[in-house]
Amino acid sequence: MNDTQAPGGPADGTKRPDSSRRSERSRHAIYDAALALVAELGYGRTTIEGIAARAGVGKQTIYRWWPSKAAVLMEAFLDLADQAASGETGFPDTGDLAADLGLVLRATVDEMNNPVYEAPTRALAAEGIVDPELGAQFVEKLLDPSLQLYVRRLRSAEAAGQLRAGIDHRIAVELLVGPLTHRWLMRTLPLTHEYADALVDYALAGLAPRD
């Protein structure tokens, strides 16, 4: 080995490309391609071949990392959710429960109406109905963590005497997010901030302390 050759590197002394960085670039290109194609074409018309072509990788690269397009989309959406949550400080707790819930539900409405999130969320929810394993991952990795934020906020409000003691916190959360999800999933009526505010008002009326 001459003096200019790096240990383990090419004989001309140039640095060998970092395969881990190349893999990460490919992985994120695949994420972006999967999310874009689902938004443009829908889940049914999105294929592994299409994702590979859009990402500029071979389809075997995708099959080496994921068993199906559903798995690709799940991981891509989790990455998207992580990016969106990176600047957040958590569920607000200002002492005003109605205001805190209203703020979060309004933000949820905005997210559900955003095509970037809407298409992959619908695709994962629909595929999870026919694929129990994917459905369980959807609940475990996406749904439950967000619902637990509500639960903690409601427990704080209960401890402060703002809610009646002994409520089932999970049912209380479902009073808020269940109708919102139903309207979004079934497209029965538009999702608006006014609707989110009404859900908070109605739910808290039923959860308030009783004389």
Report on the architecture of this protein.
It is elongated, with a radius of gyration of 23 Å. It has helices at 19-41, 48-55, 59-65, 69-85, 97-112, 115-130, 132-159, 169-186, 193-207. It has 211 residues and is an all-alpha fold. Helices cover 70% and strands 0% of the residues.
Furnish the topology, listing elements before pairings.
Layout: H1 19-41, H2 48-55, H3 59-65, H4 69-85, H5 97-112, H6 115-130, H7 132-159, H8 169-186, H9 193-207
Helix pairs in contact: 1-2, 1-4, 1-6, 2-3, 4-6, 4-7, 5-9, 6-7, 7-8, 8-9
Offer a concise description of the structure.
With 211 residues, this protein is mainly α.
- Alpha plus pi helix count: 9
Termini separation comes to 87 Å
Number of strands: 0
Low-confidence spans: pLDDT under 50, at least 5 residues? Answer: 1-9
- The percentage helix is over 70%
Characterize the largest beta sheet: strand count, sense, and whether it forms a barrel: none
Order of helices and strands: HHHHHHHHH
Structural class: mainly alpha
Q: Tell me the β content.
A: under 5%
Nearest-angstrom radius of gyration?
23 Å
**Shape by Cα distribution:** elongated
On the 0 to 100 scale, the average pLDDT is 86
Question: Keywords, please?
Answer:
single chain, 211 residues, mainly alpha, 9 helices, elongated, disordered N terminus
